[in-house]
Amino acid sequence: MISSMRRLTLEEGTKAVKLARKAIEVYLSEGRVIEDRLSGVFEEKRGVFTTLTKHGELRGCIGFPYPVKRLDEAIIESAIAAATEDPRFPPVSLEEMDEITVEVTILTPPEKLRVKPTELPKYIEIGRHGLMVKYGFYSGLLLPQVAVEYNMDAEEFLSQTCLKAGLPPDCWFYAEVYRFEGQIFKEAVPRGDVVEVKLGGAKNCHR
């Protein structure tokens, strides 16, 4: 399933990031949601997260784990939400956007891992997979870049995803665990050129 999804080109990734920035800035300045629609891959339903960082620190991150919307619509909605609705931070101001770096992560559909709990770490590749944990009304998601930045192994990544869901760190022994992949595009500097982030030595903030 994962390999069957076409990866975005750098040109497409650049369009994605520019769309996210435009959505935020128009919303903050005019109070309206842009209705821009792009062709090609942007017509496909894809999961996506928009991440905002300011001076290297997380400033907002919200998205859609599942491919429930067209990619362009999902980018617009996740970008505005990351800037205005992340409960961990006050809303972003328009003036701040000069100092904020915009990052867009395109997700593959979450894949439920149907293996024994003790076998789970073997099916998680650090630097490739992101994780989502679900148990009852609780759920938590960490993007692939989190494990790389914090030098986690697979077990710690599982535990941190449980904590993100508001559950005990060992909840992966009884909760549903999903893995997914992400393709990351971000501005090199605020309003700068867009680059594709290759996980390994990339600096990304906790999601």
TrEMBL record:
Domain of life where this protein originates: Archaea
Residue ranges constituting the AMMECR1 domain according to the UniProt record: 11-196
Chain segments annotated as coiled-coil in the UniProt record: none
NCBIfam families referenced in this protein's UniProt entry, alphabetically: AmmeMemoSam_A (TIGR04335), PRK00801.1 (NF002000), TIGR00296 family protein (TIGR00296)
Lineage: Archaea, Methanobacteriati, Methanobacteriota, Archaeoglobi, Archaeoglobales
InterPro entries: AMMECR1, AMMECR1_dom_sf, AMMECR1_domain, AMMECR1_N, AmmeMemoSam_A, Uncharacterised_MJ0810
Matching PANTHER family: AMME SYNDROME CANDIDATE GENE 1 PROTEIN (PTHR13016:SF0), AMMECR1 HOMOLOG (PTHR13016)
One family name in Pfam for this protein: AMMECR1
Protein name: Protein Arcpr_0084
Sequence intervals crossing the membrane: none
